[in-house]
Amino acid sequence: xxxxxxxxxxxxxxxxxxxxxxxxxxxEGLVWGVxxxxxxxxxxxxxxALQPASIPAWQDSGAVAADxxxxxxxxxxxQHLMWNYVGLARNTPxxxxxxxxxxxxxxxxESFYRAGKVTDDLIGLRNAVRSAVIVAMAxxxxxTSVGCHYRT
Length: 152
Description:
Number of domains: 2
Shape: flat
Strand content: 5-15%
Strand order of the largest sheet: 1-3
CATH topology of the largest domain: Methane Monooxygenase Hydroxylase, Chain G, domain 1
Structural class: mainly alpha
CATH architecture of the largest domain: Up-down Bundle
Oligomer: single chain
Helix content: 55-70%
Largest sheet: 2 strands, parallel
Order of helices and strands: HEHEHEHE
């Protein structure tokens, strides 16, 4: 049986209220992390673990590595979009703009990923833009002001 556990900021337990900027989330992550680990140990004893030797070697078929300057610029753009448009103070026009630009950027980054040599920076950039789109979409769906996030 496979179990999925979420701890810390992603758990949304509400144990310490809506404002998650305090250090109380660290304690919550520790407590629930230990409990999740204990649950995994208790239930995973009978499961067959994946053997590292059974994982095939990575096939590096990408022809050309993506330009590091492009990767760095795209990461900076993601960071600025998220800070300026999806930050603590949010409104619909900003979120619409962020989603539009992030989706365009996601398409460009996916082109790098599909055509180029896979590197750690490229994987990180791809994960960053996907995460940014998900966070922006969640912010767009949430029309209320909760905790430290203010929606106008």
